[in-house]
Structure formats: structure tokens, C-alpha cells
Specification:
Blueprint (H helix, E strand, L loop, with lengths): L24 E5 L4 H16 L8 E6 L5 H15 L6 H8 L2 E5 L5 H18 L5 E5 L6 H10 L11 E5 L7 H14 L5 E3 L7 H11 L13 E9 L8 H4 L3 H19 L8 H13 L1 E3 L3 H4 E6 L2 E3 L2 E3 L17 E8 L8 E7 L6 E8 L19 E7 L3 E9 L7 E9 H4 L7 H11 L8 H19 L5 E3 L7 H8 L9
Parallel strand pairs: 1-2, 1-4, 2-3, 4-5, 5-6, 7-13, 9-18
Antiparallel strand pairs: 7-14, 8-12, 9-12, 10-11, 12-13, 14-15, 15-16, 16-17
Bound molecules: NADP nicotinamide-adenine-dinucleotide phosphate.
Length: 509
């Protein structure tokens, strides 16, 4: 069989062809951080391994340590060996290592940014990066403005007619609508909107992109994807770990800002949006903007939201500290580690359907899923005892782990009597496809180098998401400490009551 990439008859616009980035370099700020070591540098290696980076690709690390190029090279080497998805190959590594450089400095050091500008220039001359550079801000959000301004001051942000400069910004993008607007202004003063890539790494996940295929490539689901058939939607991102060592980032931020504002609202947008006219970036983002504009908190907020903070106790046979005992957190911290909200998408398709979004740390299991729960059949022509064990039909998109889709429906229990019970039908990526899914950061870094913005939220999406969340955050700010919940549980009692009040229950994935 002729493979897609070496078939001369195939149209070069064919979306199945591997896309290889053009000449370019990537500068990472915050290279000693967790994200850079565990995700970014391994993803760059994986892209190199798959042959998706250009020949002269160069990687520049910027950090305050007093390092030489080879010290940084060692850091990249070790993080690749430990965390890369694809096997370590000396030949791939050696090629990548030739383009690795390090610049030492702090964010307020003009000289350091001038040296960085010179390094970027030298790399173009030596390795033919075409003057095209992406700047990845893998740094504390408080440093986004100063680094953006330094990029402007040093001329690093200046593109020309035939070169590009792009900036990649990690979450969280602001801490409320006001600060997000201020940050957008600073960033857009320096980079035009099409050069700004705000990362929401959930959008880089295969399972999330598959939501679009599931909805829009099939005839089966779309006719019932509305308030006539859907009872409610539950979007969950649960983690079983705590926040040890992350106080600097998390204290005062909390679960809603950390996860609901970005990941969960993006999942809601993809679940609820109308079919885009195409998958062109503008068309896709326009639909997300439309659906986020129609999304509002459903009140009263005391009954339709819940927040909690994990207490100390036992989890999986281990004694674990509560948040207030974790190093670095204020002893009276009111930061929530669990948040649940009820939203409504106020349009013809969804009016009246609650969207329940929840996230938390130290919960029973690590799982992210979208569950579309359908209404009961309007009439059951069985004795009531026959359907006692019949729940509601549900379509569950398993985002992680165990990526796939589950359909739950009622089936007759074998035997001579009529008894109907829930069964599930499963699609698992691991079973259906032989190739493993790329890591989200692999896909997203490649998209940045290719200038392909579809999977990156635009500033309007970010601002709309804060508009949805701000009234809830303001409501919580007026209340005292969040309710405590035991480690390994599924959140505080008020979260259960929030659904029980409407005759529903959270799924226990
Ligand atoms: N970790 C994740 O999984 C994850 C997931 C999603 C988003 N994010 C976001 O990604 C970004 C990075 O996260 P992270 O977990 O990697 O953070 P981190 O471990 O705290 O690393 C922060 C990095 O920034 C550098 N830095 C801080 N202040 C600096 C200064 N004044 N001058 C120069 N360098 C400075 C640190 O360098 P030193 O080593 O010299 O201190 C370090 O390399 C954050 O915006 C975070 O919100 C992280």
C-alpha cells in the first residue's frame, strides 16, 4: 500500500499528510520549571523524533541560573530521557543538541534580553532559522507582562514581511475579567492577535478533538444533542493528588480559576457549540465565542455551586496532610481545592439543560470526562419491577485516562423473565488504533511553529469565560472558609446536595 506521505498523486492540501514546521527557533522562558521539564522539552524531542521539526531547528533556554550551553543541554537531555513519549535515539538527540543554546538572566535584566536577541540572530545566521521565533512563557503568570514588554523593548517581538514572531502564553490568563483585559491589552500592544497563542493544553488532547469528529462526522448523535433529549451534562476533571509544593502558584487562585475558567469551559464550548461552517480557525472559534456568550451561571448560587477544601486523613492506605498543613499555604487559607458550578447555555438548543462542571484535588480517582446524560424514555411498557435497575442513557467521552467513549443503555438480562439493566458499550483508543496518541503539548507546539491557531482560545473566549465565572467567585469571596472534605472522597456534602436538590446524582467514575 502507498503511504500518504510518499504518494505523488496526493493533494498537498490533504490534511492526513504529516505537517512539518518551516525554519524556526523556540525560546523557552522558565526552563527549570516543572512544565518545561516534564512536558515542553520532551514534546520537542518527540516532534524531532517524528521528523516534524525543520533541519536547523534551534531551542533557546532562558533562566536565572549561571549555566553554560552544555548545562542546559544536560537538563534537556535528562528531561527527554525521563519523560519523552517516543524512544530515546542518539541520532535524533545529537541533531537536536546542535541547536541548543542558553541565555542567563532575570526578567528585569535589559542586557540579558539584548543577549537573547543576539543569540536568536546568530542562530539564524548559523542554522538558517529564517528569523522565525516563538517565545514560550512557561513562567509565573505575574511575570507575563514584564517579559512581554522586554520582548518589545529588545526588538525580539518585531516580525518583518517575511519572518514571524509569536508568543505562547500559559494559563492562567488573568485572575478575573479585569486582569485578563489588562493582560490582553499589554500582550496585544506588542503582538498582533494572530501571533498570540494562549495555551489550553486540553484542546491539544486527541480525545477532545475527537469530540468534534464524534459530533460532526456522524449522523447518529447530532439529532439527539439538544434539550429535547438531553437531561443534563456533567463535565468532570478530578485529580487524586494534593497540592504539596505548589502553594506559590495555587494559594489564592483555587480550583475554579485553575481549571473551570479554562479547561472545563473549553470542554463545555466544544460539547454545546453549533456545527462550524468549516474547521478553519476563524469558523471554529466563532462558534465557541457564540456558545460562551450564551452561557450563564444558573442561580441561586448558594444552591447551584459548591466549593470545598481537602482535609487531612487517609487516602489509598497513606496518611496525607490537609491543604492547611501543606507547606507554603496560609494557615487560614480559604483557597478552594474543589469547585462545582451549574451553568446554562441560553439558546434554543440547550435552554433548561443544566451543565454541571466540577473539579477537585485529592478526590477518589484521576479522571476527566464529559457525560451527556439523556432523559428517560417517556413511557416504559414493562412492569415497574422489570426496570428497577435501569438508569438513564449516557454517552461518556473519556478524556483521560483510558481514553475512549462509553455508551450506557438498558438491556434485557438473559433469562426467562423480563428484567432490564444498564450495560455499556465501549470504544477505547488503545484497542481501535495501533498508533499512540501524541501528547497534547506535541501537537500544540507544532501548531505554534506552523502558525495554526485553531486549538488556541482567542482573547474573546478568555474574557467570556471570566465573565461567566466572576459572579460565582464574587459570591464565594463573601463567604468564609470552604467546606472540608476527606481525601479520597468525591468532594464536600454540599456538592452532592447541589445535584440531589434537582433529583440528580454525580457520576462516580
Ligand atoms: N506544571 C504544570 O503542569 C502546568 C500546567 C498548566 C499550566 N502551567 C503554567 O505554566 C507556567 C509554568 O509552570 P511551572 O509549573 O513550570 O512553574 P514552576 O515550576 O514554578 O517554574 C517557573 C519557572 O519560572 C522561572 N522564574 C520564576 N520567576 C523568575 C524570574 N523572576 N526571573 C527568571 N525566571 C523566573 C523559574 O526559574 P527558577 O528555577 O530560576 O526559579 C522556573 O523556571 C505557569 O504559568 C503555570 O501556571 C503549568
Amino acid at each position: 500500500m502507498t503511504r500518504a506521505w510518499n504518494n505523488p498523486l496526493r493533494d498537498p492540501r490533504d490534511k492526513r499528510l504529516p505537517r512539518i514546521a518551516g525554519p524556526s527557533s523556540l525560546v523557552i522562558f522558565g526552563v527549570t520549571g516543572d512544565l518545561a521539564r516534564k512536558k515542553l522539552m520532551p514534546a520537542i524531542y518527540d516532534l524531532a523524533h517524528r521528523g516534524l521539526l525543520p533541519a536547523g531547528f534551534s531551542l533557546v533556554g532562558f533562566a536565572r541560573r549561571d549555566w553554560e550551553h552544555q548545562d542546559f543541554g544536560e537538563l534537556v537531555h535528562d528531561s527527554v530521557k525521563e519523560h519523552a513519549r517516543t524512544p530515546f535515539k542518539e541520532s535524533v538527540w545529537n541533531r537536536l543538541a546542535e541547536g541548543i543554546r542558553f541565555v542567563q538572566g532575570t526578567f528585569d535584566d535589559d542586557d540579558a534580553f539584548d543577549r537573547l536577541a543576539q543569540t536568536v540572530k546568530d542562530l539564524d545566521a548559523e542554522r538558517g532559522t529564517g528569523g522565525n521565533t516563538a517565545f514560550y512563557l512557561s513562567i509565573p503568570p505575574s511575570a507575563f507582562p514584564v517579559v512581554t514588554k522586554q520582548l518589545a523593548r529588545s526588538g525580539l517581538a518585531d516580525a518583518s514581511d517575511d519572518t514571524w514572531r509569536r508568543v505562547v502564553i500559559e494559563k492562567p490568563f488573568g485572575r478575573d475579567l479585569k486582569s485578563a483585559k489588562e493582560l490582553n491589552e499589554i500582550v496585544n500592544d506588542v503582538f498582533p492577535e494572530e501571533s498570540v497563542f494562549r495555551i489550553d493544553h486540553y484542546l491539544g488532547k486527541e480525545t477532545v478533538q475527537n469530540l468534534l469528529a464524534l459530533r460532526f462526522a456522524n449522523q447518529l448523535f447530532e439529532p439527539i444533542w439538544n434539550a429535547n433529549y438531553v437531561d443534563h451534562v456533567q463535565i468532570t476533571m478530578a485529580e487524586d493528588i494534593g497540592l504539596g509544593g505548589r502553594a506559590g502558584y495555587y494559594d489564592g487562585i483555587g480550583a475554579a480559576r485553575d481549571v473551570i475558567q479554562n479547561h472545563l469551559l473549553q470542554l463545555l464550548a466544544l460539547t454545546a457549540m453549533e456545527e462550524p461552517v468549516s474547521f478553519a480557525p476563524r469558523a471554529l472559534r466563532a462558534e465557541k465565542v457564540k456558545v460562551l456568550s450564551a452561557t450563564k451561571p444558573l442561580g441561586p448560587l448558594d444552591e447551584t455551586t459548591a466549593r470545598g477544601q481537602y482535609a487531612g486523613g487517609w487516602q489509598g492506605g497513606m496518611k496525607v496532610p490537609g491543604l492547611l498543613q501543606e507547606g507554603g499555604f496560609a494557615k487560614d487559607s480559604t483557597t478552594e481545592t474543589y469547585a462545582a458550578v451549574t451553568l446554562e447555555v441560553q439558546n434554543r438548543r440547550w435552554a433548561g439543560v443544566p451543565f454541571y462542571l466540577r473539579t477537585g484535588k485529592r478526590l477518589g480517582r484521576r479522571v476527566t470526562e464529559i457525560a451527556v446524560v439523556f432523559k428517560r424514555a417517556p413511557h416504559l411498557p414493562f412492569d415497574s419491577t422489570s426496570t428497577e435497575e435501569l438508569g438513564q442513557n449516557a454517552l461518556v467521552i473519556r478524556v483521560q485516562p483510558d481514553e475512549g467513549i462509553t455508551l450506557r443503555f438498558g438491556s434485557k438480562v438473559p433469562g426467562t423473565t423480563m428484567e432490564v439493566r444498564d450495560v455499556t458499550m465501549d470504544f477505547g483508543y488503545g484497542h481501535a488504533f495501533t498508533e499512540s496518541s501524541p501528547e497534547a503539548y506535541e501537537r500544540l507546539i507544532l501548531d505554534v511553529l506552523l502558525g495554526e491557531p485553531s486549538l488556541f482560545p482567542v482573547n474573546e473566549e478568555v474574557e467570556l469565560s471570566w465573565e461567566i465565572l466572576d459572579p460565582i467567585l464574587a459570591h464565594w469571596a463573601k463567604k468564609g472558609a470552604p467546606e472540608a472534605y476527606p481525601p479520597g472522597s468525591w468532594g464536600p456534602p454540599s456538592a452532592d446536595e447541589m445535584l440531589e436538590r434537582t433529583g440528580r446524582n454525580w457520576r462516580r467514575p
